[in-house]
Specification:
This protein is of the alpha/beta class and about 290 residues long. Helices cover about 20% and strands about 20% of the residues. It has a single domain, classed as 4-Layer Sandwich (Purple Acid Phosphatase, chain A, domain 2), CATH 3.60.21.10.
């Protein structure tokens, strides 16, 4: 039975360049040493991107790998929540980018690395190339009492999970108890954050409905290239920064476009998330700064 102290469950920190930012939970430890385990979330690495939003794009992923490898406390595992590569219409180039991405991340000291597709990886060929290099686009795994569910809301060009995957999700959840700790990993937000900017999942509400009976659920996603926190009922959703370029806040400007590169602060707006899981707390009532 899990104790009732929910505030100790996790802390989030962003990595900009090579420095960890302070924890988002005031008063909580900034080290993962006291945690039962911790994992790293990379998102939106966009390998193959070339453009003014990140003049160092060719080397950014390698630098991030080196930074994580230098952490004194290595994570239990690492997850990439989509857009591993930057989109291309050329099928051969798409595979070449995935091959090079895989080579770079193979240098990670942690060898338990989980992948998920983004629309840049999978929408043009319905995930065909992605599956050749990284396997199933949706799956589950368990780690130290936490059930992880990775969803694919990008391989369908209509930004849907689809009936088949929703049926699979329902069947998996039926095996869980209402108090089980569940972490959902997606690329796009499951809720309607900014549909006009493609920041939504067409049938995401159906997934949220399936998750609602479970009292300890948190969702980590990418796609929007910035930190963002929102709740749907008791379910907290946390977006991760991109490793390659930042995007504007939802609705803050007429069109979605990468934020201008600042040579004086080359890592500004970029990051990797370190999530520390305490062994004795629940997922509900997480007080994230800025929510």
């Amino acid at each position: 039975m899990l104790p009732q102290d929910r505030r100790e469950f996790l802390k989030l920190s962003g990595m900009a360049g090579v420095a960890f930012a302070s924890a988002l939970f005031p008063g909580q430890p900034t080290s993962a040493q006291a945690a039962d385990f911790h994992f790293i979330q990379f998102s939106d690495t966009h390998w193959g991107y070339k453009g003014p939003a990140n003049p160092d794009a060719e080397h950014t992923l390698e630098k991030a790998v080196a930074t994580v490898n230098a952490l004194p406390n290595q994570p239990d595992f690492i997850v990439f929540t989509g857009d591993l590569t930057h989109t291309t219409d050329d099928a051969a180039e798409r595979r070449a980018r995935m091959r090079r991405f895989r080579e770079i991340v193979s240098a990670l000291r942690v060898k338990d690395v989980r992948f998920m597709p983004g629309e840049h990886d999978a929408a043009l060929d319905k995930g065909e190339a992605y599956k050749e290099f990284f396997g199933a686009p949706y799956y589950t795994f368990d780690h130290k009492g936490v059930h992880f569910i990775a969803l694919d809301n990008v391989s369908d060009p209509a930004a849907k999970l689809g009936d088949e995957q929703l049926t699979w999700l329902a069947a998996d959840l039926k095996q869980r108890n209402a108090e089980d700790r569940i972490v959902v990993l997606t690329h796009r937000p499951l809720f309607d954050l900014m549909p006009s900017w493609d920041w939504t999942t067409a049938d995401g509400a159906k997934a949220i409905e399936l998750l609602m009976p479970y009292r300890n659920v948190v969702v980590f996603y990418g796609h929007i290239h910035q930190e963002h926190h929102q709740n749907t009922g008791h379910i907290a959703h946390h977006a991760a920064k991109s490793l390659i370029f930042a995007l504007p806040a939802p609705g803050s400007q007429p069109k979605r476009a990468p934020l201008q590169y600042d040579a004086a602060s080359p890592g500004q707006g970029l990051g990797v998330r370190d999530v520390a899981m305490a062994p004795t707390a629940k997922l509900t009532e997480i007080g994230v700064a800025g929510a």
